Prior knowledge:
- By secondary structure, the chain is an alpha/beta fold.
- The chain contains ten helices and 19 strands.
- It has a five-stranded antiparallel β-sheet, with no helix packed on it. Strands 16-15-17-18-19 form a five-stranded parallel β-sheet, sandwiched between helices. It has a four-stranded antiparallel β-sheet with strand order 1-3-8-5, with no helix packed on it.
- The longest helix is centred in the first third of the chain and has 23 residues.
- The N terminus is likely disordered.
Amino acid sequence: MKKIRLSGKPLHDTWIVLLIGVTIFGIITSRGLVISFGCIGVIVAFISLVWNKICLQNLNYYRTLSTKRAFVGETIDINLTVENKKPLPLPKVFISDELPSGLKLEKSQPSFEINHQLIDNRFFIRKSFSIGWYQKIFWDYSVTCTKRGIYNLGPAEIEVHEPLGFLQSKIKHPAADNIVIYPKLIDIEKFESHSNRPLGESIKGTKLLNDYSRPYSVRDYEIGDPVKTIDWKSTAKTTKLKVKTYEPSISDIFIIAVATETTYPHWAAHSPKKLERVVSTAASVAWLAFKRKFQLGILTNDLPLPKNNPLIVSPSKDKHNIDLALKALAGIKAYSVEPLEDRLMKSSRNIPKGCTLSILTSHLSKNLMLTAHHLSTTGYNVIVINTGDEYKGQIPKSIHLYQIKEFLDSNYNEAI
């Protein structure tokens, strides 16, 4: 036998039953005062019940963001709107919206109450208000992006109390906004001006085959030159066999490989400070390569190796490729599945020959340097950028090594 519940609240339903009983008792005993008390109580209880049943209907909640993409240190303006689209006022409404850990509440009008759950380190902004029938209410506040990452703002929880305070209804509003906070950028071009070998000179592809659509000059024929390169007009003029020379095609693919390990062995505890420096430097190099019209690709070792493509961002000429690259860097975790040198060796068959391969690490080991040297001898233009302590080992001539710890100490500020 199913239990009959009016409101779902046992105490409220019990009071309704008791008031009905009081009314029946007054009728039986012909006591008008008791009948009046019972009837008024039942009417009030049912008004409270009906009010609670419909209070959440046509109550809309909207969240509008000035942007869903921002760099660390930038500000996002947020507008909250609550609209009551029914002829029923709501005297007591509470809204609770989760605030991701990477966002810091700066200002709001009117002010919000902030709740911090210590168990899972979550922050919530909470606001209580009343709203009339067919009324719309707005609030504006700003948040500062303090930590890179991919966050969800929401969902919001809406709680409405009926006027007498006996009942309340809750609902989770499904609207959730995805916010990407890009890593903090460093003025890497400032480092170039103080370097004996500017980074921009190293960001270049390897010469590949001759591009026959780009003739360069004419020279004397040599044994082995293809017949199709003979310049017959120059040959006729000089009575000597001449051949055309061509500019070689250059790979415009730029792969950034980020080492997420900050110490040895790779699975040991990570240093958040060192990891953030590596990621910020990688984002800055990616931005520099994008400005110089390279096709960006990203490779990291914080996730298991994908079966089809080891690159979490594939090189592309699409103008949105930089957004994908920065988003991938924003989502890097403080975890290393395997050393970067192992990931590079496993992935090298999928990395296009002739591209520029930029390796970024805060812990430059001998094994990683050996791997970089091997790749430089197999058709890659390899750049190694070390954000950690200075590497004291032997540096192969084929490797462009940049040790930028001192530069970061004076130009990179972790505090926001």
